[in-house]
């Protein structure tokens, strides 16, 4: 007598309206985190998203989960901008430029510091999004160096910390009021990355590990 193999049931796919609600919550949270900081009441986020409080908690059981989702989505969208530029133009420096400006538009400098000591920095989703963007920028920079477009004495850490410092102040600190100057200053920074270099930088190229240990 043989035993029938158990029937494998696929997990039901989320309904389209449920996915739209989740996207609206993440978008509203991103906007309000930037404007007011990570402590903005979740019911205010629900109100801006046009959903009920129960819908927010059904998708995100706590504030940490929502902040993490917002940060991951921003990192992923920024990576996609750079990948798209590389695919469209084949120009590594143009892809790097697109990444830098997209980072400002996505407000990475305001959102990423929210993953503070109270959050799980080692959550698999966050680690995957962070590794993706770091590896992508490293690959783009290496291609730009080989093409003679990028000075040789800068590292991924130099780019990341400069983007954060030049783009915007922390969330809730009037960061929206500086939009007029951000891309102008980022373009000056990008021009300084181009080869040939016109000066010698002090110290050594910064890596992401240098930043994490700082």
Automatic annotation (TrEMBL):
Domain (HTH tetR-type) spans 19-78
Q: GO molecular function: any one?
A: DNA-binding transcription factor activity
According to the entry, DNA is bound by residues in 41-60
* Pfam families recorded: TetR_C_43, TetR_N
The UniProt keywords, alphabetically, are: DNA-binding, Transcription, Transcription regulation
InterPro entries xrefs: Homeodomain-like_sf (IPR009057), HTH-type_TetR-like_transc_reg (IPR050109), HTH_TetR (IPR001647), Tet_transcr_reg_TetR-rel_C_sf (IPR036271), TetR_SbtR-like_C (IPR049445)
PANTHER family from the xrefs?
Answer: HTH-TYPE TRANSCRIPTIONAL REGULATOR BETI (PTHR30055:SF234), HTH-TYPE TRANSCRIPTIONAL REGULATOR RUTR (PTHR30055)
Name of the protein described by the UniProt record: TetR family transcriptional regulator
**Protein species of origin:** Streptomyces flaveus
Species lineage: Bacteria, Bacillati, Actinomycetota, Actinomycetes, Kitasatosporales
